[in-house]
Amino acid sequence: MASRLANRPSSSSTSDSQATELARIIRQAALAEGFDAVRIVAPDAIESAAGHLASFIADGRHATMDWMADTAERRSDPRVLWPDVRSIIMLAMNYGPEHDPLVNLQFPDRAAISVYAQNRDYHDVIKGKLKTVAQKFASRAGADVKVFVDTAPVMEKPLAEQAGLGWQGKHTNLVSREFGSWLFLGSIFTTAALIPDAPENDHCGSCRACLDICPTNAFPAPYQLDARRCISYLTIEHKETIPEAFRKAIGNRIYGCDDCLAVCPWNKFAETAREAKLQARDDLKAPTIADLLSLDDGTFRQHFAGSPIKRIGRDRFIRNVLIAAGNSGLAELSAHCGPLLADPSPLVRAMAVWATAELDDAETLRHKAGRHIESEADPVVRAEWARALERRTLQETI
Fold first, then answer.
1. Do the beta carbons of residue 88 and residue 163 sit within 8 Å?
2. For a 10 Å CB count at each end of the chain, is N or C smaller?
3. Residue 279 pLDDT more than 70?
C-alpha cells in the first residue's frame, strides 16, 4: 500500500550538512514512533535484483502469485514505481516472540499460527506509524514523500540489505545482527537527496539451519525459495486444496510457518522486550483445533477482527485447520470434522474428507462415505473420497 503525503517542490540540491541533518530528523522521528532501526538507500542500489526476480518468475517459483509477474518491472526498480524518487528510507520494527514458536508443534491438539499473525495486522500498525514519520520529515525537508508497506510492488528485503538493516539470509528473509530474523519492514520514498548508508554484509557463513529444518524442502538451494513448496504460501496464498504431497509435512501449522526463522542463530541477539502493540493475543498463541473447527463465517470474522488471518477468509482457514486435525492422530477430533463433510464450501468438504480418512477406522470411513458420496456434486470432493477409500483398501491388503 502506498500513500502520497506531501506535494511541494523539493530543492534541486542538498548540501552534505543539510542531508546529515535530514537523516538525523528521520531517525529521531522513526525511533519515537517505535521503529527499532532506520537506514537510507539510493533507489538505484538494487539493480541486480531485476535478474533474480526474472529468474524466480521464469522458473515458476512464484506459484499462483501472478501479481509478482504483473508488477515485475515496477518491483525491480523503484524509479519505475516513482520516477521522482531520489532516496529511500527503510524502517524496521522488531516483532521477536517471547517464546520459542516451535514448541507449539509438539502439541497435536493445538494449532500453530505464525508469530507475525498473532498480533494486530502489521500493515495497520506500521502504515500509521510510517505516515506519522513521513509527515514530520516532509514538513522539515520540503520534499514529497510516499510510504509503502508490503503489499506495494517494492522489493523491501533487497533495499533493506543495501540500506544496512541486515542481509538476506539463506532462507531469503532479512537477518539482522541485532534482531535476528524477526523484523517488519516499511519504506518511505522521498524526493529529498539523502546520503545512503553502507550495505550490510552476509553473515550466514556455513550455517544452513534454516534450510535443513524446512518441512517441505522449499529451498532448492541456499538463498532460493520455491513458493510452491512453502508452507507459508500453501496456507495463506494458495486458494485451492493443499496438494496431497505436502499435507503431512504441514503438521499443525494452520497459518504460515516460522521454522526457518525460528532456528536462525542470530535470533539470540534479538531484543525480547516489545511494546504492547506487538504483544501476541493470548487466544492466538496456541488455540485448540477443536475450537477452530467450529467457526462459521460470522464467528470467524468476529474472532479474527483486526488480524491478518481474516484476509484469507473462513473457508481457506478451515481447510488449514482440517489438515492439522488429520495430522493430529487424535481420533476424538473426528467428531469435529464430521459436520464439515456437509459444509457449504467444497474446499472445506474436500479437506474434511482427508482429515476424516486420517482419523477414522475403515468401517466408520466407509459408513460416512456412503452417506455423503451420492449427494456430492463437486468433482474435487468426489476425488478426495475416491482416494481416501482407495488408500484404506490398500492399507488393509498390506
1. yes
2. C
3. yes
